[in-house]
Amino acid sequence: MTTPSHTQKLHPGAAFPSLEVPSLDGSVRDLCKPQGDADWMMVVVYRGRHCPMCTRYLDMLTPLLPQFTAIGVDVAAVSGDSAAQLERHLGQLGAEPSFPIFHSLSVTQMQQLGLYISDPRSPEETDHPFAEPGVFVINEHGTLQVVDISNNPFVRPELDTLARGLKWIRNPDNDYPIRGARPYG
Known about the structure:
Blueprint: E1 20-22, E2 28-30, E3 40-45, H1 52-70, E4 73-78, H2 83-92, E5 101-102, H3 107-112, E6 117-118, E7 130-131, E8 134-138, E9 144-149, H4 159-170
Parallel strand pairs: 3-4, 4-5
Antiparallel strand pairs: 1-2, 3-8, 6-7, 8-9
């Protein structure tokens, strides 16, 4: 039996850290900053090419991208996979994603985000520690509006529900605060 390690979780209402990751074209992007006309950012951290549930999740995100774009939310995905692993993974996706996918998320970055980290069960699975799933939604102030961190691939936010929820949160008539930001104790 192993002793659980402690993780430092990002809390709603906290500033989202700079998260510089490379793309396949060699450029580097800071995922805390939305691009284009968007003023919010959604970062989807997935386990990697070895995870069929991650492939399915990314495939489900592609047709929903217009809903996120319509409410000013830029979307990007990232994993700890290498560039070569990401290239192979793109061939496994059902359709070419309409959002950028980045690679080489480091263990230090995974820890900075408060993600759970797993070691591969075998060399056939993958060749590096990988982050378990996480979804981070950063508002126009660079503040963490929504956070979902899981310790396994079976628990993730339902993307259509998330898109509808963010649309409701972004509606100024609802005056919806960041939930869970109050310190406890």
